[in-house]
Design brief:
Largest sheet: 2 strands, antiparallel
Helix content: 55-70%
Radius of gyration: 24 Å
Distance between the termini: 27 Å
Oligomer: single chain
Number of helices: 2
Number of strands: 2
Structural class: mainly alpha
Length: 127
């Protein structure tokens, strides 16, 4: 059966729940993408900072950011703190990448079911 724009398909409670679930998953997907992009930017910034420290003496004191404040630490300590930060950010990035894949899989499943019922009367694609 082909659907045209004049066909009226009733949206029952289960359909509405699927649409709502898709919407929530779509929001979650885009938030995870945004967070991972921010993490990539942070990794680049940390790498650049670590490269700049290569020109400094190990016992030289530099300001290091902890939350909203700065403390003075020697370059060697700053390098180890940056390495620790990089490890944590990479771990979070990998975890969120897995979540992105799972979310996308769920979205595609719901999308297939909704398009099968509603055809061109529903648009679930990003613009």
């Amino acid at each position: 059966m082909k659907f045209t724009s004049t066909d009226n398909i009733e949206v029952d409670r289960q359909d509405q729940q699927k649409i709502n679930s898709f919407s929530r998953l779509n929001l979650q997907y885009h938030e995870l993408i945004r967070l991972n992009q921010a993490r990539k930017d942070e990794l680049t910034r940390l790498s650049d900072g670590k490269d700049e420290m290569e020109l400094m003496e190990d016992d030289e004191k530099i300001p290091y950011r902890f939350g909203d404040s700065f403390i003075r630490v020697n370059v060697e300590k700053a390098r180890s703190l940056i390495d620790e930060q990089v490890t944590n950010i990479k771990k979070q990035f990998e975890e969120d990448t897995k979540k992105i894949e799972e979310t996308l899989k769920q979205m595609n499943n719901l999308k297939a079911k909704l398009y099968a019922k509603f055809g061109s009367q529903i648009n679930l694609d990003d613009e």
